[in-house]
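in:
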C-alpha cells in the first residue's frame, strides 16, 4: 500500500467542526479506491478533493476528502487459536471478507485453512480456493503456534441469519457474541429431527437422541462440526 501523506487544515471559522472528528489514529489511510482500518476507524477511498467541514447521513460521514463509516458499526472480535487444528467462526461480518486479508496479520503462523467443502487457503504455496470468508460457515485452521486472530466487522443478527444445511457433515459458525447452551442454540435442528451429532474442537459431543451433552455452552469464536440425516436450517434463538 502506497504511503499517503495528508495535511489537515482546520478552519476555526467553520463552527460545525467538532474536535473529535479530527482525532485521527495512525495506520488508517489507504490510497484511492482502497479500504484501510484500525480498531477505531475505517476509511473507504478518497473523494478527490479536500473538504472543510463535513456532511453526513445515518450511515456515513464525509470530511477532509474521506468517507468514514460510523464507529458504532465497527467491532473487533479476537479469536484465540491454539497450535494445531482449530475450528473457528465469528459473530461479525468482516469489513474485508478476503481470506488473505483476514489472516494477513498472522499469515506466517497459518499453515492451512479449510472450509466446509474442503477448499483450502495454503499461504506458503499461494493457494486460495476459498476466496472470501462466509458468515454461514465455520473454518478449520491449522497454526504453527498459539496466536490471536483479530477480525473487524459489523455484528451479525443471529436470529435473522438462517443457515441452510445439507445432509451429512457440515462446519457451522456460532453467530452469537455470548455463550448459549447448545441444546437451546440448535433447537431448530432438533425440533426438525435433523441433527444426529455435534462436535467441538476438543472432540466433546452433543448427541440429542441419547441425551448426551458434553459440550454445554457454545462459545463465541468457535465453529462446530454437525451431522444431519436430512436437510435443515439452523437459526440461533
Amino acid at each position: 500500500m502506497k504511503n499517503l501523506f495528508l495535511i489537515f487544515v482546520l478552519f476555526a471559522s467553520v463552527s460545525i467542526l467538532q474536535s473529535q472528528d479530527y482525532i485521527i489514529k495512525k495506520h488508517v489511510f489507504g490510497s484511492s479506491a482502497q479500504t484501510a482500518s484500525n480498531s477505531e476507524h475505517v476509511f473507504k477511498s478518497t473523494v478527490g478533493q479536500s473538504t472543510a467541514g463535513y456532511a453526513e447521513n445515518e450511515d456515513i460521514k464525509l470530511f477532509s476528502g474521506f468517507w468514514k463509516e460510523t464507529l458504532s458499526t465497527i467491532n473487533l472480535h479476537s479469536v484465540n487459536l491454539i497450535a494445531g487444528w482449530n475450528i473457528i467462526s465469528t459473530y461479525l461480518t468482516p469489513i474485508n471478507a478476503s481470506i488473505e486479508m483476514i489472516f494477513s496479520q498472522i499469515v506466517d503462523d497459518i499453515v492451512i485453512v479449510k472450509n466446509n467443502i474442503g477448499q483450502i487457503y495454503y499461504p506458503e504455496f499461494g493457494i486460495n480456493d476459498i476466496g472470501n470468508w462466509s458468515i454461514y460457515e465455520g473454518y478449520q485452521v491449522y497454526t504453527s503456534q498459539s496466536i490471536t486472530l483479530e477480525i473487524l466487522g459489523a455484528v451479525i443478527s443471529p436470529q435473522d441469519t438462517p443457515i441452510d444445511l445439507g445432509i451429512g457433515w457440515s462446519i457451522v459458525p456460532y453467530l452469537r457474541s455470548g455463550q448459549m447452551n447448545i441444546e437451546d442454540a440448535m433447537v431448530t435442528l432438533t425440533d426438525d429431527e435433523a441433527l444426529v451429532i455435534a462436535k467441538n474442537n476438543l472432540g466433546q459431543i452433543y448427541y440429542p437422541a441419547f441425551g448426551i451433552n458434553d459440550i454445554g455452552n457454545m462459545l463465541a469464536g468457535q465453529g462446530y462440526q454437525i451431522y444431519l440425516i436430512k436437510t435443515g436450517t439452523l437459526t440461533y434463538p
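note: Helices lie at 99-102, 182-185, 187-191.
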